[in-house]
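As noted in the main text, all predictions were made from sequence alone. Below is one such record, for ATP-binding cassette domain-containing protein.
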Amino acid sequence: MTDLSIGQYVDLRIINEPEVTPEPKTGAEISIEQLHKFYGQVKVLEDLDLHIQAGEFVAIVGRSGCGKSTLLRLIADLEQPSYGEIKFRSLLNFREGITSDDIRVMFQDPRLLPWKSILHNTQLGLKKHDFAKAEQLLEKVGLKEKAALWPSQLSGGQRQRTALARALSHTPRILLLDEPLGALDALTRLEMQSLIEKLWLEQGFTTILVTHDVSEAVQLADRVILLDKGHIASEFSIDLPRPRIKNADFARLEQQILHAVLAT
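Prediction:
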């Protein structure tokens, strides 16, 4: 697996790609208040408060076992809090609240059905009148020509692109990313980062990324949250212009966050 060492900072902007103009934010606000999650006597999250703006891109970092993925599962309603509240509000006020249909999760494993084609995997859960949207998203992620293939015929990066297209075909207000790029090689990972950022800018959904990669967090997020033993240890605002270049300012923020993680 190819990797980039700390200190190698290059311009990662895609050559000749047109600059994306951000659309109005269509995501949802997330308010987390006094959140606790226990498994028996084990405290995973304790008295956690966090507010995420509609359309914001937040990255959550921290050591293994600090509660990152548990927090994502609670937001996705895949698990229930032991105590506390997670509240949502639609920025466009289409309705009072946000339901689980407005939230999509992308995992490290693409979780594609091996007996269905790439197109049919992307169309899962959609009504027939929305099937064209799935085809459009396959084109956006560069897989239009692969639509009739089986998942086994794609590379790992292409399978993750399919999983991303499937998640976005449901027009989510909130996209939760649970280390979706962790198993990819370095160059494919960079391509996927650029693709996720491009689609987020186009569609304006609220995004929460769980990652162990501090560089990835700085590359994508508006704000980085450091969790430690179920608490928010630190928050870092990433005020760097997009598309981001790995220059001295980028390196400074990366090192600042990395040192905070190592100190936990």
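The longest strand covers residues 28-39. Strands lie at 28-39, 42-52, 57-61, 83-90, 103-107, 174-178, 206-210, 223-228, 231-237. These features were considered when defining construct boundaries for the mutagenesis experiments described in Section 2.9.
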